[in-house]
Amino acid sequence: MAKKKETKPTKSKSIPAPASGGLVRTDIQAALQKGLRVVPVQIDDQMKEAYLDYAMSVIVGRALPDVRDGLKPVHRRILFAMHERAWRHDRPFVKCAKIVGEVIGNFHPHGDGAVYDTMVRMAQDFVMKMPLVEGQGNFGSIDGDNAAAYRYTEARLTRAAEELLRDIDKNTVDFSPNFDDTKQEPKVLPAGLPNLLINGASGIAVGMATNIPPHNPDEVISAVTALIKNPDLSLKDLMKLIPAPDFPTGGIIIGGEGLKQAYTTGRGSIRIRAKLTVEQLRKGRDTIVVTEIPYQVNKKNLLERIGDLVQDKVIEGISDIRDLSDRHGIRVEIELKKDTNAQIVLNQLYKQTQLQVSYGIILLALVDGQPRVLNLKEILVEFIAHRKEVVVRRTKYELDQAEKRAHILEGLKIALDFIDEVIKIIRSSKTVDEARQSLMKRFKLTEIQANAILDMRLQKLTSLESQKIIDELAELNKKIKDFKDILAKELRQYQIITDELQAVGKAYEKKRFTEIDHSSVDTTSFEITDLIHDEDVIITFSEDGFIKRTPIDTFKRQKRGGKGVKGASMKKEDVIKLISHASTHDNLLLFSNKGKIFAMKVHEIPEAGKDARGKSIKAVLNLAADEKITAMTSVREFDAERAIVMISRDGILKKSNLDLFANARKGGIIAISLRKDDELINVCLVNPKDDILIATRNGLALRTNLAKMKSQGRQASGIIGIRLEKGDSVIGMDVVVEKSDLFVITELGYGKRMAFKNFPVKGRGTKGMMYVKPGERIGPAVAIQTVQKDDDVIIICQSGQIIRVSVDEISTQGRSTQGVRIVTLHENDSIQDVAILKGDI
């Protein structure tokens, strides 16, 4: 047996380490290719390079969303896998186990738990503003309950997800091989919606993190279309269209300055506060009712935290906590002890629980594969650029398909024109290839056209089928011309983007869930009103202290004598007390029965529909236990040239310069010192030399001039304005304006107009003269207003019904008449208050 020849082991060659710095990866690869088996490197350089590779893998492949479609790879793979299997919104639900298996088997080589958890999150309507997966079964809750195992649940795509995937089969995006090179997966989705802003994103990468809040779809789409129309729009203009995030759980955003920083620099912080009201539910005790909680707050943990604080006596004044939440929404009742100040308890809850949380915004996303912190406009610009590319690529694809089909139809048309000769050539040919070549030579056809002729069925020879081919070719030629026009004109491309976005936007919720409070904006560098649309609204205030603002368009003009529309959904024992007209840029001044004045911005009042009750004033203003609002008015500026006149129920009149109240806030300051058992009834903004008219319940009115009346300080008590008879009381006051009339309405819905010339100027302290004759049929007078012919009167009843009537329809009558019916009241209903809309509104 021959011996094996021994071979000496070869010595590994080595290369010396460089004097400074280490070898880069290309040098290592080159050394290995030369046969060197041991390559000395600097360990710090090797660690740095390896860690950077790992970091970029996490950043690009896992943690950060793409700015174009707003998705991370795992989200994109789930949606694409479901799209490939046609698990759409109009198909039956599919077991989640099947979906997870499809995703990890074909696209996502990671654990099934990560894929299922991601899918669950995309189906939760308290997490996603616009869910991308529709779930059936237990998909978790806002209390932190986990979803059921994927063998028990089912899912399918939503319409919104299908908008992200629309046209993906038309070469609109690039594809890359999956992990085992057996399939292709998209690098990005066509994204028919600006998903990054609508649904937001959060993720922690290596050395960086993103936290993009969800936004209102209608607002984002409006901003995109506005930016397409005018690319020079400033950030301030865009923030008017997208004023703040819109969380699916609602709540109130506080922190305009942090919001401004986030939208302009990409980083900022806001506070989210729970939405609540203060109600009297039983035994006359105040109850804090929470109906919306901050985004990503676990309700169960929140209630446990409040319970612990009450048990440890950190927060006193709470007697009971009840969670009455159900599938219709959240309702948590926090019952307070007797004589407890609700505002104090609320402040403690905001400070020590998650009824108020801080939310840090980081607008970080991948742009061309690189992480970048973007401002609001840059995100929208990137989305528009992506959609433009999608539209161009789709149009090129459709043009190519149309040209291919037209090419075939042109060949078929030639065959039909020479059908007898074509048949003769085919019949005389021994093989298919011979027939193909003969057709191509005789009619100058391409191979594709010749094949189409050879594949043509005999039924195409009928005259009807022939005409169909001719019509289809004509239609295709029109489309080809249109596609080429789109590719040649950038304006058409942008118009298509706009039209498609607007069509999609119509199908989704437009209502904003989250209210905005700009109270912390630094107005030295940034005007809050720049972000708020200046519009006229109607403000209503109920006897139980609920306030709201409603757009004027809600109340359409009606004929005199109508019944009106529902103006509020009231409790049986609650009634509408005050109504006023204002602008969202105005300051609303509210006066209490104790003579204090409170001020707040009109835009801070929650907007609500005509059927909504509104928000409790106790959750907004620091009112005393026995204090209530009795009058309100609005003013744009605290002008030193103007004054405010106050009248009490007992006829006490006071004039003070308006600028004295410039520092009035939600905490309130003294406006007038009232006598015991008296209360403030009405206020008016006046010029120093105006005439005013004071009216009483029993039909007496006094017109007096303010020129000789001195302005008094805030602590003053005022002087006698009108001397009242026994049992009478003041109901209102207004300024006498040239070419205007006095309007009066009574408790049972009767009213009239009177010329001010019927009321001569008298001295203060007199009884006045008759302006309406009260009686059993019309009831006592309720309110007066100064009106002009082009104005509208908005009248509100105790039941909450509101009617808007043109002043021109109300007849002018004498002082001693009872007037005409203006409102047809329901049984046991009565008139509560009126507001005037000027003719140019």
The CATH fourth-level homologous superfamily of the largest domain: DNA gyrase/topoisomerase IV, subunit A, C-terminal
Q: Tally the structural domains.
A: 4
Estimated radius of gyration: 37 Å
SS-based structural class? alpha+beta
* Continuous helix count: 18
Tell me the CATH topology of the largest domain. Answer: Neuraminidase
The amount of helix comes to 25-40%
Largest sheet: 5 strands, mixed
Q: What is the general shape? A: elongated
Q: Tell me what the CATH architecture of the largest domain is.
A: 6 Propeller
CATH domain class of the largest domain: Mainly Beta
Sequence stretches where pLDDT stays below 50 over 5 or more residues: 1-24, 521-526, 564-573
Give the termini distance in whole angstroms.
115 Å
Compute the average pLDDT. Answer: 85
Query: What is the β-strand count?
Result: 42
How does this model look, in words?
The structure is a single chain. With 841 residues, the protein is of the alpha+beta class. It has 4 domains: 66-190, Topoisomerase II, domain 5 (Alpha-Beta Complex); 275-354, Gyrase A, domain 2 (2-Layer Sandwich); 391-505, Topoisomerase, domain 3 (Orthogonal Bundle); 533-837, Neuraminidase, CATH 2.120.10. Strands 20, 21, 39, 40 and 42 form a 5-stranded mixed β-sheet that branches. The protein has a 4-stranded mixed β-sheet with strand order 14-9-8-17. Helix 13 crosses helix 16, helix 15 crosses helix 16 and helix 17 crosses helix 18.
